Amino acid sequence: MSKVKFELEFPIHASPSMLYQYFGTPAGLEEWFADRVNSRGKMITFIWDDSEEEAKIVANKADERIKYKWTESEGDESYFEFRIQVDALTKDVSLIVTDFADDEDEVEEAKMLWENQIEELKHTIGA
């Protein structure tokens, strides 16, 4: 069964380098995404309450984007990515989140989860 890809765009009032710190470093991710985050090279462990998920960094460009692949989804094309987009004219900064849901029915739920997470991020950075 193939997963359903979706993208969300969030305008964020922050510089790309400051924003990147919040999704490209374990300390930044702990402030809004997971309770604890441990990294060993390209392997990242996200810890929430009693659950633990491992992901591998598959692409990374400082102040621009980072792409993670859950180890449990090694057999498919899914990943989740944070990408910073800066409008050439207005210099407005947006965070683009790309993720996958298991099926069409789960897309809306996954989008709502990301919207809540990004609200938490905005609150954390005061944007």
Structural description of this entry:
With 127 residues, the protein is of the alpha+beta class. It has three helices and seven strands; from the N terminus they run βααββββββα. It has helices at 16-24, 26-30, 104-125, and strands at 4-11, 36-40, 43-48, 51-61, 65-70, 80-86, 93-101. A hairpin with a 3-residue loop joins β4 and β5 (65-70).
Question: Topology, please?
Answer:
Layout: E1 4-11, H1 16-24, H2 26-30, E2 36-40, E3 43-48, E4 51-61, E5 65-70, E6 80-86, E7 93-101, H3 104-125
Antiparallel strand pairs: 1-7, 2-3, 3-4, 4-5, 5-6, 6-7
InterPro entries: START-like_dom_sf, START_2
Protein name: START-like domain-containing protein
Domain START-like: 2-127
Distance between the termini: 38 Å
Shape: globular
Mean pLDDT over the residues: 94
Binned strand content: 35-45%
Largest sheet: 7 strands, antiparallel
Gist of the model:
By secondary structure, this protein is of the alpha+beta class.
Q: What distinguishing features does this structure have?
A:
127 residues; alpha+beta; START_2; START-like domain-containing protein; START-like_dom_sf
